[in-house]
Amino acid sequence: MLPLDHFFRNSKMASLINSFKHVFISLLFLCAYDMLQVIAQWPKGGSTRFYEFKVQMLKVTKLCHTRNIVTINQMYPGPVVYAQEDDRLIIKLTNETPYNASIHWHGVRQILSCWSDGPSYITQCPVQSGQTFTYEFTLIKQKGTLFWHAHFSWLRATVYGALIIYPKKGVPYPFKYPYEEHTIILGEYWNQDLVQLERNVLASGGPAPVAEAYTVNGHPGPNYNCSENGIHLYIKMENFIACLGLFIKIRVISGSAFGLFSLFGS
In angstroms, rounded to a whole number, what is the distance separating the alpha carbons of residues 192 and 195? Predict the structure, then answer.
């Protein structure tokens, strides 16, 4: 004959199991309800846009030094991704470099598509050399200026670009329609190989060194050695156009890995 305390222990265990079952079933119903709510609000009629990103090396000469940097499609900064609100984006990433890579879509809400968010070892494994990965997500009720960047190691210092989301057709801007628009991406540049630089910093335990130059659309500008003056002329031309009374829209993005930028204007 079983002891009385054994009977009570089994009864308590059965009660706990039944309680757990009720809680688990309630959570399942709650999740299913939330899922149905999201699906009911899912945008209809948006376009599907395809992009192909190839992680490739590019030889550049800046600040009197020549070295290879990691880029997308051998562009620095990388290609602009254009879309409209509620569009679906499909981006195939192919890694043609010896480094692991992934792309984070900065500012995208990733509703029901967290696996396409991009942080390595968090929402996905990094894309290894010679491998591919396809990002798929919908820009639900999003419009404006976002950007994308690498999310493995310090590759984001050279692997970044703009993500421009226009309003739906027929939806006006909340301001005067611009005569034209330009995108300015601010960044940092080091002469040293970024992967080796990261290793040195981790080994030392210290902070990241200050960049050798700050860039505008990949150019250091006229204040650095062996640099072009294209940015200086570009800004002067923009000021000239603005003085004519035309409304110019400037999209400004900070693609820097560590630096902070302040913008002043009148």
Answer: 9
Give 116-145 as a DSSP string.
GS--BTTTB--B-TT-EEEEEEE-TT--EE
Paired residues of 83 in beta bridges: 165
Residue 107: both structure tokens together = 């500012």
As a whole number of angstroms, the distance between CA 166 and CA 14 comes to: 57
Structure tokens at 135: 């990002």
Q: Is the pLDDT of residue 266 over 50?
A: no
Can you tell me the distance from the alpha carbon of 52 to that of 108, in angstroms, rounded to the nearest whole number?
A: 19
- 227: tokens are 């640099």
pLDDT at 36 over 80: no
Residues 72 and 57: their CA atoms lie apart, in Å, by 8
C-alpha to C-alpha distance for 191 and 157, rounded to whole angstroms: 12
Half-sphere exposure (CA, 13 Å, Cβ side) for 215? 24
Helix H or strand E encompassing 242: helix 230-243
Stated pTM of the model? 0.79
